[in-house]
């Protein structure tokens, strides 16, 4: 199959990508197990893209149960350079209103039950993550929001919680005191693994609620999240489509060599089985 340059991960409320033509369902097995679903590979305005429903079609997989490694590995296997993620988030600031899009550029980790690295089993690597988001993808989202005529704010911190429960009010207020912008349950491990796999990653976060901090307002519920997603999913799809068109063609990700100096382990001491397993990611450095 031809290289698929662009990957789209659809979150809560976005389980398919409208406008994809010549659709092919591609099931991928990875050394880390199965991804959430088959990749829907097709063309969007002349660009080859792969769409993955993060929680699987029908929303069957909790944030903690997500096989982040398999999902990101599958994208790499397809040849993806740029990953566009779409997520529902709660707002931690008055100014981020339901239906607004925020394109976060930082993360705060509040997860505790996930695997966020491809490494281990005899190979140690430490990759830079000071700028966890790819500015090329983030700018493509920003440009796309302008084109579609929706609010799309570039920058902000995304607090990633373990879930599946929403936060307590004390937690929500704590995150606000940290100056964080939005809250969700899925994006941090994707960003970490995309970096280790030398792909670009950014999220278009759609605000669906004010979490539980806003006095005089109802606390977040799934019903509320789904209602806003339904109301705004047309815009989300339009923005993703415009962002795909705004991405550079035939160019490697700016993170294509992110792992060049990240591997600590003496190469002669990495077990053969691990070398074989991680060949797709780091074979070129060993
Ligand atoms: C349905 S509310 C909580 C759920 O929504 C977000 O999902 P995603 O990031 O995949 O859009 C959040 O992270 C939770 O998984
Ligand atoms: N308030 C919230 N907290 C965590 N994840 C969310 N996804 C949508 N709204 C959320």
Automatic annotation (TrEMBL):
Gene3D superfamilies: Nucleoside phosphorylase domain
GO biological process, one term: L-methionine salvage from methylthioadenosine
Keywords tagged on the record: Glycosyltransferase, Purine salvage, Transferase
Annotated GO MF terms: S-methyl-5-thioadenosine phosphorylase activity
GO cellular component terms given for this protein: cytosol
Domain of life per record: Bacteria
Leading EC class: transferase
Binding site for substrate: 185, 209-211
UniProt site positions, description: Important for substrate specificity: 167, 222
Pfam family, one: PNP_UDP_1
InterPro entries in the record: MTAP, Nucleoside_phosphorylase_d, Nucleoside_phosphorylase_sf
Record-listed E.C. numbers: 2.4.2.28
Amino-acid positions noted as binding phosphate in the UniProt annotation, renumbered to this chain: 12, 54-55, 87-88, 186
Pathway: Amino-acid biosynthesis; L-methionine biosynthesis via salvage pathway; S-methyl-5-thio-alpha-D-ribose 1-phosphate from S-methyl-5'-thioadenosine (phosphorylase route): step 1/1
Chain ranges of the Nucleoside phosphorylase domain: 5-244
Reaction it catalyzes: S-methyl-5'-thioadenosine + phosphate = 5-(methylsulfanyl)-alpha-D-ribose 1-phosphate + adenine
Coiled coil feature spans: none
CDD domains: MTAP_SsMTAPII_like_MTIP (cd09010)
Subunit structure: Homohexamer. Dimer of a homotrimer.
Family named by the database record: Belongs to the PNP/MTAP phosphorylase family. MTAP subfamily.
Cited function: Catalyzes the reversible phosphorylation of S-methyl-5'-thioadenosine (MTA) to adenine and 5-methylthioribose-1-phosphate. Involved in the breakdown of MTA, a major by-product of polyamine biosynthesis. Responsible for the first step in the methionine salvage pathway after MTA has been generated from S-adenosylmethionine. Has broad substrate specificity with 6-aminopurine nucleosides as preferred substrates.
Protein name: S-methyl-5'-thioadenosine phosphorylase
Species whose genome carries this gene: Granulicella tundricola (strain ATCC BAA-1859 / DSM 23138 / MP5ACTX9)
Gene name of this polypeptide: mtnP
